[in-house]
Every structure is written in structure tokens, then in C-alpha cells.
Amino acid sequence: MSGSHARRLREVFDTLLTAHGPQRWWPADTAFEVMVGAVLTQNTAWTNVEKALARLTERIPLTPEALLDLPEPELALLLRPVGYFNVKAARLRAFCAALLTAGGESALAAEDTARLRRRLLAVHGIGPETADDMLLYAFGRPVFVVDAYTRRLFGRLGLLDGGEGYDAVRALFEQALGPDTALFNEYHALIVRHAKDICRARRPLCAACVLRTGCPGAA
Question: What architecture does CATH give domain 3-23+145-208?
Fold first, then answer.
């Protein structure tokens, strides 16, 4: 990425932070809850994840052991609010089993970021975005999370052409911004906030967008 593109990424962050304020992500009480949430939030809104987490914690302690002790059909029923609940029950159980096999959270936290990312990606149902959510928000690693909101916003701004792979986009942000966990945390949250409220997939509110000046995609 050129120096001008890197400066533009910083400018976008500063503008979004001024407009929306700190987002204080991730909304969870423990690192394990973050990891569970990362699995459950695939293809659904966070409000649905909150409903599923409330149902789970009313039934069992939120630990990998308790989740594995729960029969999978019962777990699936508790996860109904998140959609694809049978699939997500299987994925969540696979993740919990892998976590315990690895020695638990403390053992994973002792691994370097590259090795930990490979380990997470090896778990059934854990893709790059979910793995990076865990790395950034549960383990505090300087990994930039790329999602559909990122592609939409920066595609419209002309900083992505739409053909880049996940790792290429992640590397682009990480190289431009430098390894900064707090910055990556806040930036991702601001992207989600802005893309949901303003830079919407359909009928974006360009007139209300603080990034509209110089945006090739502005209506």
C-alpha cells in the first residue's frame, strides 16, 4: 500500500472516531464468552447472540466442559436465536473439544500469534474472520478483522477493488497501521457501526456520511 493510502486509512479512522465515539468492543465478560460469541455470530446479528448466550447461561455455567456435557440436541435448541443452530451447536462443541485438548485458554494464550491462528483455523467451522475475532478480542493480538462491512466501506471509498482475498485485505490494514491491538479493536468496531448505520448495503445514507467528501461511491 502506498503512503497516501496508509494516510487515508488513518484519516478514515480519525473521522469515524470523532463521529461515533469509542465503541468499547467486544461486549462480553470473559475471553471464553468472546470465543463462544465469535462462533455464534456467524451470519447473524449480535442481538441474536445475546439471546442465545442468555439462554445458555440460564441452563449451564459458560465453560467448555459444561457445553460439552450438554447433549448436542439440547445445545442446539438453546442456540435457536442465532439461526443454523444445529450447525453452530456442532461447531461450538468442536471448538470446546479443541480448546480442552490444547490445554485450555492459558495454553493457547502462551502460543505466538501465527501458531495460535493456525490452531484456530484447524478447528471445524472456524474460518479466518472468526479466528481473527478470537485473536483480537479474546487474546489481545494485533490482528485486523476483515468482514463484509470492511469490504463494503473501503470498496466504496476506492481503497479496495473487491477482488482481494481475506489475508490480502488483512495484511493491507496491518502493514498500513502497524501492530496496534487497541487501534484494530476500535477501528473494526467503528467500521461495523458506520456500515450498519450509514454506509448500508442498500440505500446508503451518503448525505449523512462523514466520509462522503472524496468518496467515489457517494451518491
Answer: Orthogonal Bundle (1.10)
